[in-house]
Amino acid sequence: MAEELRYELWHGGRHYQISTTDLGRLRAEIQTQVVLAEHIVAEVVLPYEAIAHGRPDRVREQMERQHKDVMRRLVANEFDERAARIGRGEAPTTWKRRADQLPTDTDFDAPAFDLASTED
Questions:
Q1: Would residue 112 count as lying in a domain?
Q2: Residue 113 forms part of a structural domain
Q3: Mean pLDDT of the chain
Q4: Number of domains in the chain
Q5: Average pLDDT of span 48-73
Q6: HSE, side-chain direction, 13 A CA sphere, residue 95
Q7: Is residue 34 within a helix (H) or strand (E), and if so which, with residue range?
Q8: What is the extent of the structural domain holding 68?
């Protein structure tokens, strides 16, 4: 059964939707997308193989970690240029990364997020 975390966030006068989905054993990865005006602004994926062979407890922990990380990046203005392109009516480019290849020592000047109320 696929599991999903969803959060809506207003930032910089724009309404973003952030979703993190466990794509299940068939796809064997966790995917986080930031959507603005029906365009994918950013996408982060992580294969199960990078998180203890897809153990359910580790998958859920990684989903939460990945979801919070992407929200922090959004609040830290990391996706602003792509969002501005959408606002100008230009074709956006998607910021795509593997979660295990992102820097872990990034110091975000952003609030901590509580995901307790974001689950569907």
A1: no
A2: no
A3: 80
A4: 1
A5: 84
A6: 20
A7: strand 29-36
A8: 3-107
